[in-house]
Amino acid sequence: HFGSKSFSKSVFETQMIFFETQFFPYLLKNKIKDVIHLGDLVHNRNTIDLWILQELKTRFFKWFDDNDIKLHLIVGNHDLYYRSTLDYSFQKENLNEFKNCVIYDENKIIELGKYTIGIIPWICDGDNFIPPKLVDILMGHFEMINFHMMKNIISHSGLDQSIFKDYKYVFSGHYHTKSSKENIYYIGTQYQLTWNDYNEEKGFYVLKDNYKLEFIPNKVCPSFVKIFYNDGELKQTGLSTKEIITEEE
Fold it and tell me: How many CB atoms lie within 10 A of CB 112?
């Protein structure tokens, strides 16, 4: 969701704090060579701020080229000019100059290590969607029924999770709240963006050998807090960066 809050520079810099001070160093330290982004790379599907675009190219996409790490980019609905077709996307129009950016605007099966992964971009016609066979993991940008879109909002439309029951894991972007049911994981946003994210732990997942999955919390970005004041008594609520670090220590 680069470009959130009407292309706010301060919001963009907050997002880059996560990548430049935690995520990128983590990749290098742990010798991770593949990153899969599950869609909605940008927030505004119709336009992009030129300052943010230039910063993204020099500080984000170029980093993957410079460090020889593959960035797999699944096209989400926010990345599309038209929600009803995958023909025009931010990724397709802006990232061809980067050799390590792999764009998925159609269904594809890839091999990463010992895993066979089905890649599914935004589904324009859910009524005719057929999940791929002969894969053990699906990664995509799915709209499913009965999952939390945000903390207090549950989706009442979309695909039924039963069609994914035969996969070891299903990972999805789209909904901003991190949640899971059985084999399905909505990874959520990497950082808090709006008050809907209040008191929610954010971060990213690492898929290791033998299907082991680890969640890494965001330790560096500011988060929303509520402060209550009553005749000299001060109380603060909300998950803060300091609290996350303290819990780990």
Answer: 15
